[in-house]
Amino acid sequence: LAQRCSGVPTSVPLFSALLNFRHSRPDEMARDGHGIWEGVQLLGGEERSNYPLTLSVDDFGAGFGLSVLALPQIGAQRLCGYMHNAVEQLVEALENAADTALNRLPILPSAERDTLLREFNTTAADFPTGHTLHGAFEAQVERQPHAIAVQQGERSLTYQQLNQRANQLAHHLLALGVRPDDRVAICCRRGPQMLIGLLGILKAGAGYVPIDPAYPAERIAYLLQDSAPVAVLAEPSTQALLGAFATVDLLGESWQHHAVSNPQLAALTPAHLAYVIYTSGSTGQPKGVMVEHRNVENLVHWHCEAFGLDARSHTSSVAGFGFDAMAWEVWPALCAGATLHLPPVTVGNENVDELLAWWLAQPLDVSFLPTPVAEYAFSQHLQHPTLRILLIGGDRLRQFTQERRFALINNYGPTEATVVATSGRVRAGQALHIGRPVANASTYLLDAQLRPVPVGVAGELYVGGSGVARGYLNRADLTAERFLQDPFNPGRMYRTGDLARWLPDGNIEYLGRNDDQVKVRGVRVELGEIESRLAAVEGVGEAVVLVREGRLLAWFTENYPLAIETLRSQLQAQLPDALVPVAYIKLDALPLTANGKLDRKALPEPDQAALLSRDFEAPQGAVETTLARIWAEVLQVEQVGRHDHFFELGGHSLLAVSLI
C-alpha cells in the first residue's frame, strides 16, 4: 500500500535499506527459539524481502542478535563483510576508546583498502625526467629537421623552420628582460604563428598565458590584470583586444633579425613554469592554474606510450586556445616528432559541422575531440577513414551505443592535474567509465573524513601524482584549500569537487559535480542519472538536465520525431516522480562554448511546446479563468487550458499547497 501511494514505480524499491529494531523476550527460550512455535507444526518456509537490504537487531536484554537479509544482486556477501567489520570496530571502540565518533569507525577490511589504494593505483612508470618541453622538441629538430611539424591548409613549417623562428622570438623576449618563471601572455588565432609564440615563450624561460581572442573584453582585461605578464604577444587582428598593453607582433619583422640558435638558459629546470591557464571560479572570477614543465613532461611520455604517437603519426589540434586540452594536443605531437594538423582560422567548435568536415578530410591516426563534439559526430554516424584512436574529454560522456572502426578513449582530468588524470577505452553497451589513473598518477575516492569509500560507493575524487600543478596564481588561500597533502603517498593531491565511484574492475564511473547534486522538492537529485536515463530512450540523440528555479528541465536532440509524452512516460517508469523533468526542450544541437564544452548558459528557457499539455481550449467561466490564471502564475507557464493537468505541467504537492 505504501509503495502504491508513494508514486514510486514498482520497479524501484520504496527503501534501499531497512533497519528493524526488535525488543525480544529476554529468556533463553526466546533467544534460542525454543517455545516460540509451541503448538505449531512448521512444514517449511523461506525468507523473502521487499527491500535490497534489511538489517534486524534483536534486543534480548542481556545481549543483541543481528541478522541480515540481502538480495544477491547487490553484493550480499561483500555488504555483510562490511557490517561484520563495522561491528568488530564498534565493539573494540566501546571497550578501548569509547569517545570515538561513530563516523570515524572504519568499515573497510584491510584487503579491500589495499586494493583501492595500491592495486587500483599501480601506475608507476619509469619515464625519462629532467627535460623541458622545448628541450624535447629540440631533440626532434635534431633527429628530423625537414619533417613537417605543423600543417594548416597550404601553410606548413618543418621542425627546423619552426625551431628557428621560435628561437628568434625567444632571443627577442630575452632582450626585453624575460626571465625564468615570468609570465608572457599570448593572444592569437589558430595557425603556425601560435606554435612559434608558445615555443618562443618557453625557450625564453617564461610560462605562457593563452588568451582566446573569442573571450569577452571584460574577461581578457581580467586575465591580463591578474597574470601581470612581462610581455604580450599578439597579431594585427588581435592587438585591439588588449587595450593599452604594448605587444610584440607575431607576424611582424621586429624580432626576425635575432639569431636562429637555441637559447641556452642554465638556470631553467623542469620545475619552472610552463603555462598558466584560467578556469572558471566559484566566486565568478577565473583562477589561474600554474603548471610546470615536469607536469606536462609526464603527460607527454604517458600519451606517446599509451597511444603509440611517434614521428610517423598525424594528429590535430582543435581545442580552444584557452582550453587546457590544447596543451595535450600540441606538446605530445611536437615532442614525438609527429605532424600537427590545424583547422582553418574560421573553423571552431561553435561551427561543429564545418569542423567535422575538415577533421574527416585530414590523414589523422590519433586525434582529440571535445566530448560534445564527438557525441554529435556519433549521432551523425560519421566515420573517420584513417583514425586509429579518438580521444575525448572535457565533458561528461552521456552515451556510446555503437562501436566504431577506431578505439574510443574517454579521458578525465581537471586543469589542476595537467589535463588528464584518468583514461580508459569505452565500449558500446558497457559502463560509461572514465578509465583508470594514468601513468604516475593516483586517484582516490574519499569520504568527508578523507577515508577510502568501498567499491560502488560514491566518493569525492582526489588526484595525486606527477600531474598535480603548482597551485593557483595569486590565490594562496584557495591553493591551500584545494591542494592538500596526500595522506597515502608522498606529495600532494588535488581535491576535484567531482563525485565518482569505483567499478569492480578498477575503472571509475563519473557521477558529476558535488554541486550537481541538488535538491528538488526536498529530494536529493543526481542530474547525471536523469541524463543517462533520458539519453537511453530510443530516438534521443543527446540529453542534458538542469535545475532552474527549483524545476527539473531537460534539453535533448532527437534522431527522429519524439513526443514529450513518450519521454515523460518512459522516465516515469524508471524514476521517482521528483526526478522526472517537468519540461523537455527540443534542440537541433546542444550549444557549445569556444572550448567545445556544453554551454549551459545558452540553453533556452522552456516554452509552452516543452510542456506536456493537452489540446488547448480556453477556460470557461469566472472560476475556470481565475484558476487557470493562478495555475499559470504558480507553474510559470504562458497559458493553461481547461483540459490541462496540474501535475503534467510541472506541478507537485508543494506547489499545490501554495494554491490554497
From TrEMBL:
Transmembrane segments: none annotated. PROSITE patterns: AMP_BINDING, CARRIER. One of its GO terms (biological process) is secondary metabolite biosynthetic process. The keyword Cytoplasm does not apply. It holds the Pfam family AMP-binding. Residues 618-660 form the Carrier domain. SUPFAM superfamilies: Acetyl-CoA synthetase-like. One of its GO terms (molecular function) is phosphopantetheine binding. The keyword Magnesium does not apply. One of its GO terms (cellular component) is cytoplasm. This is Amino acid adenylation domain-containing protein. It comes from Pseudomonas edaphica. The lineage of its organism: Bacteria, Pseudomonadati, Pseudomonadota, Gammaproteobacteria, Pseudomonadales.
